[in-house]
Amino acid sequence: MDQKRVTVKDIAAKLGVSLGIINKALNDKGGISDEMRERILTTAREMGYRVNKVAQSMARNTIVLGVLVPAQEKDYFSFLKKGLDKEFERLADYNVQCRYYPIENTYSAADTIETLKACMNDKVHGILLCEYFPSELEKIFEELEAQKIPTVLIGDTESAGNRYLSSIQVDAYRSGQMAAEMLHLCAKKNASVSIFVGNKDHVEHMQKIRGFTESLKEYGLHPIGVYETYDDEEIALQLFRKISGRLDGLYVATSTFASIGKVLQNEHPDLKVICTDVDGAVAACLKAGAVQASLFQDLEKQGSTAVRVLYEYIAEKKTPEKTICITPRLVIESNLDTFI
Amino acid sequence: MDQKRVTVKDIAAKLGVSLGIINKALNDKGGISDEMRERILTTAREMGYRVNKVAQSMARNTIVLGVLVPAQEKDYFSFLKKGLDKEFERLADYNVQCRYYPIENTYSAADTIETLKACMNDKVHGILLCEYFPSELEKIFEELEAQKIPTVLIGDTESAGNRYLSSIQVDAYRSGQMAAEMLHLCAKKNASVSIFVGNKDHVEHMQKIRGFTESLKEYGLHPIGVYETYDDEEIALQLFRKISGRLDGLYVATSTFASIGKVLQNEHPDLKVICTDVDGAVAACLKAGAVQASLFQDLEKQGSTAVRVLYEYIAEKKTPEKTICITPRLVIESNLDTFI
DNA sequence: TTGTACGCGTTATCAA
DNA sequence: TTGATAACGCGTACAA
After folding, report:
1. Per-residue pLDDT reduced to its tens digit, B197-239
2. C1' nearest to CA of A56: which nucleotide?
3. Which residues in chain B (202-261) have CB-CB distances under 8 A to chain A?
4. What is the third-level CATH fold of B63-170+300-327?
5. Topology (CATH) of A172-297
6. Which bases along strand C come within 7 Å of a protein CB atom?
7. Which residues in range 53-82 of chain B are in contact with strand D, contact meaning CB within 7 A of any of its atoms?
8. How far apart are CA B17 and CA B25, in angstroms?
9. What are the strands of the beta sheet with A192-197, ordered from one edge?
10. Please, are residues A93 and B52 in contact by the beta-carbon 8 Å criterion?
């Protein structure tokens, strides 16, 4: 740690060649003889050369990243955006520019394609896609691949085939497992439990259901139904009222919890409940003891991870995992304040 | 986000002055008229200037950080060191050097003072102290303060008076609270519970005791004793055998758990146990269901945070919190693998 | 008090 | 295929 780092200059001096040729060798560029490349690479290795990323980022051309976002930002999206902005903030000093491209209607294939084309026209070096998107996009993903524009997805990957660099996701299967384990810990033996999701069509929710029900077996808990709330508070409440009588434990795997939370405190003192994420309703119920725990999905981290992964691929040729899962974090009353 | 960042050059050009004077104004240096400073600072603000840290770190002199470590590394220390090294690795590109100073006997005031003096002789810009240390150090801390060498402590702060920049600690009080809450969730009502710590003299352990016992009251759990294991597996086991009969729940607030773990699985199926950190024994018991949860103290994060805080103070004049608490993370069986 | 010039480690451009 | 040189944004030493 004490001695100075080896620089390209040191290599050039040792070999008696110029800096330009060193750069070509180190970066796999053309216009250099095989012999020279070999010579440079071996001495670089011998001398323990490692590129200085800071200097590198100053010298190279600006990297431009295009981020496709929904034009009408939904509530949950603000957390994601916070993560994106935070990471772009950090990368600003690294000579990285971010360009946001709002999509009018994220359910329209035409809108999405149009926006992606605009992105490509602007010659961005990488693309970030942060919403569910329609299924007729195969063609445009082919085009992106042909133009070697790496694309990182947040969430759903269905319509992208395999033509994306990486996707950032909630570790949904594990969420289900953790919820089941927590219910196992705090509910009575052989308890009857249930799960509420938004929509079974959603891959993420299906994984939660799988993780949950598979773990239930191991813990000897009794599943009594999977219910879809369609993320509607009214529906959620009605479903809850219908089944709450024979319920010992409940995993609310979606953020639609407020309506249930209200009746929970007074009417169902013995019901054990695991929630998802942390909003005002969840926090209140945790404090009141009406909810035992919640699984914080850390959207902000998803956002910052997505940006970082894309940047590192472009700037440092680091190939990320095809699927990056963000592990949910366990929230209970006594660590609640660290999540707000 | 789209347009280019304002640089010192831009400010100089707009004002028709030189770069040197801009620098003096921005960095509170002498040899500049008040009027000029004012003029520069206001236009800098108007133009939205923000320093480019990357360029800054390349241009300035190397920052040298001294790290005092125990010569005989104890087991737990390797995790801390991992965090230190990781952060130094990251900062290497930022023109930061790290110099390790081993202390022969960390319980000897003379050894510690000698090492600190060596550190000062080398004109380090900041110091990191990562071990408990003796109590006769007030003088040397005064000297450090006089020489304006910022010092960050990891763990104990007793002998430093108030003469340190910041200290990084486990959030011990909260650990106690979280353990109590977890026992409340999984043990029966009015359960009798106990806590094992290493040593009551240790501030950190006292805080855990406080957090634990205070929370017990709120949850209606019955405390039946605080026990010191002196981090000795034998003692821990003996204590455990003595009281386990009348115990419903146990919080093992120190890493001394292996011996208890062995007898736990067969002999005490109904006892609820919360552990600290994750080693082989804890992992095995979590998998077997003999331990319900553990509180991961993230030593690695403590290490990296300490380095980062010290660096940011020196390089960016960012004054950190006097005490930085690392919140423990809840480990259960289904997220266990993410902690190893 | 202000200005000038050079250096940090790398990339990029153009000439040889 | 190779070399020389100018950037990138800032700090620093020294000259004016």
Report:
1. 999 988 999 999 999 999 999 999 999 999 999 999 999 999 9
2. C10
3. 215
4. Rossmann fold (3.40.50)
5. Rossmann fold (3.40.50)
6. 1-14
7. 55-56, 58-61
8. 12
9. A222-228, A192-197, A249-252, A272-276, A293-296, A329-331
10. yes
